[in-house]
Amino acid sequence: MKLAFILAYKNLVGSGLRTWLNVSVLSFAFVLIIFYNGMIDGWNEQARRDGIAWEYGGGHLLNGDYDPYDPFTLQDGHDTLPTSENKGLIPVLMRQASIYPEGRMMSVILKGIDPGQTTLKLPTQLLAERSTDLPVIIGKRMAEATNLEVGDEVLIRWRDKDGTYDASKATVVDVFDTNVPAVDNGQMWISIHQLWQMTGLQNHATLYISETARNSMEVEGWEFKSQQELLQDLSDIIEMKKVSGSIMYLLLLAIALLAIFDTQVLSIFRRQREIGTYIALGMTRLRVVWLFTIEGSMYSLLATAVGCIYGIPLFIYMATAGIGMPTASQNSGVIVAARIFPVYGAGLILGTMALVVVSATIVSFLPARKISTMNPVDALKGKIQ
Amino acid sequence: MSEEKIISIENVTKRFPVGDGEFTALKDINLEFRKGEFAGLVGPSGSGKTTLLNIIGSLDSPSEGRAIVMGRNISDLSHKESALLRNLHLGFIFQVYNLLPVYTVYENVEFSLLLQNKTSAERKKAVMQALEWVGLQDMADKKPSKLSGGEGQRVAIARAMVKKPDIVLADEPTANLDAKNAHAIIQTMKDLNKALQTTFIFSTHDEKVMSYLDRMIHLEDGKINQDEHISHQMSKP
């Protein structure tokens, strides 16, 4: 085994430029796979963290009549919860409304939340300030869409529980910056106590946010969704992105493996005399097959070593400085941070190494199998076609 | 030369498929070699010299008959057993040297010993001794591409001899060498034959080689024409 590695290493290094070309292509594929997956993992991790911090908390208890994918259910999808049941839950009441920034009418969702909550990162404590009659907070996307800034007033029109229209001027007390579009786009956050007063829906909530993470909750007429379930859509998107992205790096890996396969086929044809000599000197054919297979695997080992030389500083830099995401991605509706910090776990690195080494070994073994059927006499004469 | 019989060829016939038919390279060959012989299979191209050498070297097996080398019937050996036989008991010298191009002279000579799992110290001692036999101690670090034809063949001899085999099989060892180098090479092998009692069997049609042989087996069309033992009374040219 050790001998095969020594011989394979000598043969590879002795082959010069051809070896280093294969190694560099394979190392590039190796680094790219880790980089891309690290980026996706970083996105995933940040998105999950941001989703929990800004929107999901420890899980949502949704009113049974409310469907997050159907805005028409906002009208009736709310109810009260017995006091005994709502411990550790933050009520959120959602109502449709219209605002008139700069004379334009825009539909918004008014979200009433307890200003004293600390589970979500929303700066809701500002809603408790009594400097204005109706303080609201909005996200940066909403601010951009409406041209509203901190201190601006905007007219809000809403309907109470009986369907009667009412209107009032609201003052923007804060524009928060979040990576979670679901708490920003088309939404205005106000104190739930004020919303209860405005709508007459005292103690009603569309959903409750759990202050602590829990897996299940049984309340009649309500449906509990855990963090895991709430993040499922995001996980699906990220998984899909991972698969589509993998096509790119698998193509690159395939090119590198094809180069190794080609090199091996050529090598076995060109080195027939050498193979015959190995056999004449006392190597079994299987041992020669093993030698050539290890030679192919060695490309992958060298590639991982070379990949580490330039990859590790690159990965460290990326993980520290992050990668800026285009502005357009912020409006995609998916949780994407302005800067993604790739995450490189041991599993990712070792898994990628295993993928590269195993695939290189397989493509090396396939042509090397031919040696086991070679006639050493023909090999010594270089007669094998 | 001792009386110990180390090779016995009994009624060996070798046929190769050619197109739809067969070509018979060796026809009912019977031969014996004893330890310490300096013998040659001589004859024109296609006479079966190399085929017989390959069978003795367990690189090929007879279609009929038995080839017994070091007490082992070649036809009965598995791949692993014949590899072991070659590694422990047989040395090969080829017409085109067949040195491994990416290894140095030292590493080329060392190769057989690596397969025998000898220690580093044992290998070094044996390799340097083998290089001394062929006068190439100073070229241990050179690559084969930097050697002349004569030097390359001397490395091949060192590689064959380093493990002190019982038999060395040399297939046209002087075919690519000029007269001066050819004589030097043969003389080296002759010296080793005497010093180590190694059996040398050549395949050759080179007059220069023939003049050194103690035994000449003439082959023609796969048959033995003549098997003559020569006593050398005169000094070599």
Number of domains of chain B: 1
What fraction of residues of chain A sit in β-strands? 15-25%
Q: Count up the helices of chain B.
A: 7
- Please state how the strands of the largest beta sheet of chain B are arranged side by side: 6-7-8-3-9-10
DSSP E strands of chain B, number: 10
How would you state the average pLDDT of chain B, rounded? 91
Please explain how this structure is put together.
The complex is a heterodimer of chains A (385) and B (237). With 385 residues, chain A is α+β, with helices and mostly antiparallel strands. Chain A folds into 2 domains: 2-52 and 233-381, no CATH class; 59-225, no CATH class. In chain A, 49% of the residues lie in helices and 17% in strands. In chain A, a hairpin with a 6-residue loop joins strand 2 and strand 3. Chain B is built from 7 helices and 10 strands. Chain B starts with a strand and ends in an 8-residue tail after the last strand. Chains A and B meet through helix 1, helix 7, helix 8 and helix 11 of A and helix 2 and helix 3 of B.
Relevant terms:
heterodimer, A: alpha+beta, 2 domains, nine-stranded mixed β-sheet, two-stranded antiparallel sheet, 11 strands, B: 237 residues, alpha/beta, six-stranded mixed β-sheet, four-stranded antiparallel β-sheet
Task: Summarize the structure in short.
The complex is a heterodimer of chains A (385) and B (237). By secondary structure, chain A is an alpha+beta fold. Chain A has 11 helices and 11 strands.
Write the layout of secondary structure elements.
The complex is a heterodimer of chains A (about 375) and B (about 240).
Chain A: H1 2-14, H2 17-56, E1 60-63, E2 89-99, E3 106-113, E4 135-139, H3 140-146, E5 153-159, E6 165-176, E7 187-191, H4 192-199, E8 207-210, E9 222-225, H5 227-230, H6 232-270, H7 272-280, H8 285-321, E10 323-324, H9 327-330, E11 339-340, H10 346-368, H11 376-381
Parallel strand pairs in A: 3-7, 4-6
Antiparallel strand pairs in A: 1-8, 1-9, 2-3, 2-5, 2-8, 5-6, 10-11
Helix pairs in contact in A: 1-8, 2-6, 2-8, 2-10, 6-10, 8-10
Chain B: E1 5-18, E2 21-34, E3 38-42, H1 49-56, E4 64-69, E5 72-73, H2 79-89, E6 90-93, H3 105-115, H4 120-133, H5 149-161, E7 167-171, H6 179-196, E8 199-204, H7 207-210, E9 215-220, E10 223-229
Parallel strand pairs in B: 3-8, 3-9, 6-7, 7-8
Antiparallel strand pairs in B: 1-2, 1-4, 4-5, 9-10
